Amino acid sequence: MRRVNRFAAEVQVRSELWRVHLPNSGRMTELLVPGAPVRVALSGTASGTTRGRLLVIRHLGRWVGVDSHLPNRLWELALQQGGLPPVAGVRSWEREVRLDGERVDFCVHTRSGEWLVETKSCNRVEAGVALFPDAPTARGARHLRLLADVVSRGGQAAVVWFVQRDDARCLRVDWQADPSFAELAHRARRRGVRLIAYKCAVSVAAVTVLGRVPVLTGRRHGSC
Fold first, then answer.
1. How remote is the C-alpha of 221 from its chain's centroid?
2. What kind of fold does domain 70-216 have according to CATH?
3. pTM score over 0.90
4. Which of 13, 19, 66, 70 has the least CB density, counted as fewest CB within 10 Å?
5. Cα–Cα distance measured from residue 155 to residue 152, given in angstroms and rounded to the nearest whole number
6. Are 7 and 25 in contact (CB under 8 A)?
7. CATH dotted code for 2-60
């Protein structure tokens, strides 16, 4: 029915209004429309002020995932099966690794050496183009600087996006939403940070990784 604050929304369940946790601080103005069908993972009993977590929203005839924690889980499932190129031949990994005062999502040990990997969620798509971010992200900018420095010292690093919908043909960093992040992404790629994106099929039962889509970082808008 409405967004209450950055991390809470109000939904109607039958004739009742419930406050639920919204696990995503992005703007999502095109998704969080009053009257949109949603699915909520209930907590069983009220936990604090919320009754569950809002996970997917129906938008233009398809389910779209809004859980920003999901990419970490998808990536870890991929690691359990050997990884996704170029981070393949996985032997082991650690989560939430501290580096230069920041936390990096994953440190992955592979047959080709160690990788530092940040995972990110995207759910905004316009005319087949996934756009990230939809609001300024100082944390994302710090991680890009950090990963670029790792690569400049001879290490391996990647940013992996999971687009939580199936209609993306490519992902483009959004220069209008956050010029600083977009510029840093463009520079990081030139310095050797791998930028990778996957689109997903989303239903109320499962999220399935469909395949890789190109990542565009240039200021000029090219076609997918």
1. 22
2. Trna Endonuclease; Chain: A, domain 1 (3.40.1350)
3. yes
4. 13
5. 7
6. yes
7. 2.40.50.580
